[in-house]
Amino acid sequence: MPAGVSFACAEGTSVDAVVAALHAELAGEAPTLVMVFHARTLDPAGMAQAARAAWPGAHTVGCTTHNEYWGGAFHDDSAVAVAFVGAARAAVEVVPDMGAFRPDHGAALVGRLASGLDLAPAAVRADQHLLITLTDGLCGGDERLLHSLTRALPGVSQVGGNAGDGTRFEQTFIWVDGRVQSGGGAVVLLEPGVPFRAFAAHHFRPTGDRVVVTEADPARRRIIAIDGWPALVAYGRLLGTDVQVGTALGGNDVQFGMPSGDGWFMRSVMAAAEDGLVVAGGVGEGEILHVMAPGDMVASTRHALDRVFDDLPEQGRRLLLFHCGGRHLAALAEDREAQLGRAMAPVPAVGFSTYGEHFDGQLVNLTLSGLAFALAGADEEEGFALLESDDG
Questions:
Q1: Where are the beta strands (DSSP E) in 153-287?
Q2: Which end of the chain is more exposed for a tag (fewer CB within 10 A), N or C?
Q3: Strand-strand pairing, 269-273 and 276-279
Q4: Residue 301 and residue 231: Cα distance in Å, rounded?
Q5: CA geometry: angle at 247 spanning 208 and 184, to 5°?
Q6: In this structure, are residues 349 and 285 in contact, taking their beta carbons and an 8 Å threshold?
Q7: Model confidence over 160-181: pLDDT tens digits?
Q8: Closest CA relative to residue 366, chosen from 253, 272, 287
Q9: Residue 391: CB partners within 8 Å, gap ≥ 6?
Q10: Residue 307 neighbours by CB under 8 Å, 6+ apart
């Protein structure tokens, strides 16, 4: 059976009903791997067990989200499924405790994944294989995992995201083959059997201003002081307004960037806590952060996705997206949520909004990362209807 990528979606708060709807939509497929991204309102343990029962011949991997994306729009209280079918092959490894993961664990982890595909690590090929990573969105340790995977498999594309908890920021969950965990992660080595391309894009630019982190707790993802001032005070000055404890800040226009090669990766300020700013990635004392300002998120998204398919066949295009929850909050603040949703679906697309996006060994923020697939010979009208974008 030819390899392929199929999507399904369902709304509701009943685990059994949602999984049954996903299964019905994927009826007739022979999946090797099914990934499910779902609202925190759906019990993670129940979702893990129901998915395992629904697809007993496949690996089943899932996580909770900030929100779900399908049909060219953002949704709450729903689930999306991505099934890799037919000749596609996958191996999955669990990271039980992200906090205990060490960089030297990466080579052994990659060895087990490669063995799951009957390969030696040296036989994993960048043009045939890719890594999909899901990690707890609140515990930290994800950056060590991502860096170690890139070192162990240089050149192999790696994308994914941190699990979410809506806007609560209390606890996130990941599950693999019927077993659920909090504080851990999952790594998939996938041979999709179809042309693919990994990508990441954001819409921020440097302003020329910089600040220095003078006190931080990277393990807890806190910036405690900036330029010698309490972080909430210093950030409030950049915003031009007081910052109140408990405020969600991911959608604000003032964010921080760090240089990476010829470009920048973003480090998002997520919320204000009693002891400082909660950031969506590790920031250490002495780090120089560049103050970044946003461009047009909708236009930049369209432009980025236009370029994603440059080297891929035209038939049967699909997008699997890992989208920053802060981008969604910013779109809401600008009253452009619907426009952003449409811009993200030039072809059938599903995914979820994250507490941090993964791309080629880095934890990035305020970014749209993902995988573009082309299913040669597929009917591009199958699945979700193609959505037209407007300029409004």
A1: 157-162, 174-176, 179-181, 185-191, 196-201, 204-217, 222-226, 229-230, 255-260, 263-267, 269-273, 276-279
A2: C
A3: antiparallel
A4: 31
A5: 90
A6: no
A7: 999 999 988 889 999 999 999 9
A8: 253
A9: none
A10: none
Which pLDDT tens digit goes with each residue over 358-387?
A: 999 999 999 999 999 999 754 443 333 222
Within 8 A by CB and 6+ apart from 53, the residues are none
**Could you tell me which of 71, 11, 17 has the C-alpha nearest to residue 38?**
11
* Amino acid at the residue 113: L
Q: How far apart are CA 356 and CA 200, in angstroms?
A: 12
The alpha carbon of residue 101 and the mean position of all alpha carbons in its chain are separated, in whole angstroms, by: 20
Asked whether 297 and 213 are in contact (CB, 8 A), the reply is no
> What would the two tokens of residue 287 be?
């780090």
| Single-letter code of the amino acid located at 289 | L
346, amino acid identity: P
Tokens 């991997």 correspond to 61
Q: Do residues 237 and 348 touch, judged by C-beta distance below 8 A?
A: no
Residue length, the chain? 392
Span 104-130, average pLDDT: 97
Nearest CA to 91 out of 154, 182, 177 is that of 177
Q: Sheet containing 357-359: which strands, arranged edge to edge? A: 89-95, 185-191, 130-135, 157-162, 357-359, 362-364
The pLDDT, as a whole number, for residue 385 is 28
User: What is the secondary structure of 103-129 as a DSSP string?
Assistant: GGGHHHHHHHHHHHTT--GGG--TTT-
Q: How far does the chain reach from its first CA to its final CA, in angstroms?
A: 43
CA distance 363 to 53: 33
Give the contacts of 27 (CB within 8 A, at least 6 positions apart). Answer: none
CA 324, CA 375: separation in Å to the nearest integer?
A: 26
356-to-30, 53, 153, 326 alpha-carbon distances in Å = 31, 30, 22, 9
Asked if 19 contacts 83 with a C-beta cutoff of 8 angstroms, the reply is: no
b/e per residue 135-156 (b: at least 16 CB within 10 A):
bbbbbbbbbbbbebbbebbeeb
Phi/psi of residue 19, each to 5°?
Answer: -65, -40
